[in-house]
């Protein structure tokens, strides 16, 4: 899941980005509306987090225009304005959620993840591939009933593969969804993470290489890949 955070307050933006990245999300950041507009034009985000009051304008007005142009990326507003009328204005402008400062990082993460799931349509919270169980709601993975200790980034990659079982997921898509703009596409970050996951998932292998494409999660290694 890839998220854009837009805030001119460098300290707050840093803390929000750090919190989301610590939970395995790929996060890009922008300090003003022009930079946000450019980022949203070139990247398909699962969620955008906007501080409402920006030097370059009210984010409400920007999101309103965003909706008029047909772009439907889920939006969470962060703001110090806690009046009911302010929240109503946020939803009326096309916002999907509204979080008042100060806020707790776990609540921010939960709200962002909820919007990210919404952007991909309705998905089951638990996916099973063979004896592997990926529980997106609890952020837990079990194999043959045994809880596996995965890092946030390992879970993020496995969650993406599990959302499309038996399908070949392109390496480029894994980079786009699981890493932010600082990732180098030609590096071996995907290969390293897949190798770590394979060791933790154990035998028989469930993550299979599709040469020239990427990887797929499948219980049967001999079945023809979908996609």
What does this structure look like?
- Helix content is 39%, strand content 23%.
- The chain is of the alpha/beta class and 227 residues long.
- The chain contains 8 helices and 14 strands.
- The longest helix has 15 residues, at 105-119.
- 32% of the residues are buried.
- A 5-stranded parallel beta sheet has the order 2-1-3-6-7, with helices on both faces.
- The chain has helices at 10-22, 33-42, 59-68, 84-92, 105-119, 152-162, 171-178, 189-201; strands at residues 2-6, 26-30, 47-51, 53-54, 57-58, 75-79, 97-100, 126-129, 132-135, 140-143, 146-147, 169-170, 207-210, 214-217.
- It starts with a strand and ends in a 10-residue tail after the last strand.
What's the short story on this structure?
By secondary structure, this protein is α/β, with parallel strands linked by helices. It has helices at 10-22, 33-42, 59-68, 84-92, 105-119, 152-162, 171-178, 189-201; strands spanning 2-6, 26-30, 47-51, 53-54, 57-58, 75-79, 97-100, 126-129, 132-135, 140-143, 146-147, 169-170, 207-210, 214-217.
């Amino acid at each position: 899941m890839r998220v854009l955070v837009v805030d001119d307050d460098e300290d707050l933006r840093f803390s929000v980005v750090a919190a989301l990245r610590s939970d395995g999300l790929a996060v890009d950041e922008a300090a003003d509306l022009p930079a946000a507009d450019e980022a949203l034009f070139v990247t398909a985000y699962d969620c955008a987090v906007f501080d409402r009051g920006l030097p370059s304008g009210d984010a409400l007005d920007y999101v309103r225009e965003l909706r008029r142009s047909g772009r439907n990326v889920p939006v969470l507003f962060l703001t110090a304005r806690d009046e009911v009328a302010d929240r109503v204005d946020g939803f009326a402008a096309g916002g999907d959620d509204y979080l008042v400062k100060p806020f707790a990082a776990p609540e921010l993460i939960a709200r962002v993840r909820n919007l990210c799931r919404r952007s991909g349509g309705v998905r089951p919270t638990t996916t099973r591939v063979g004896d592997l169980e990926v529980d997106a709601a609890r952020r837990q993975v079990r194999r043959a009933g045994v809880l596996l200790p995965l890092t946030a980034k390992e879970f993020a990659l496995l969650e993406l593969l599990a959302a499309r079982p038996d399908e070949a997921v392109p390496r480029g898509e894994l980079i786009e969804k699981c890493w932010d703009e600082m990732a180098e596409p030609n590096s071996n970050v995907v290969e390293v993470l897949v190798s770590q996951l394979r060791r933790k998932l154990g035998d028989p292998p469930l993550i299979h290489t599709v040469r020239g494409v990427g990887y797929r999660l499948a219980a049967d290694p001999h079945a023809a890949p979908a996609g």
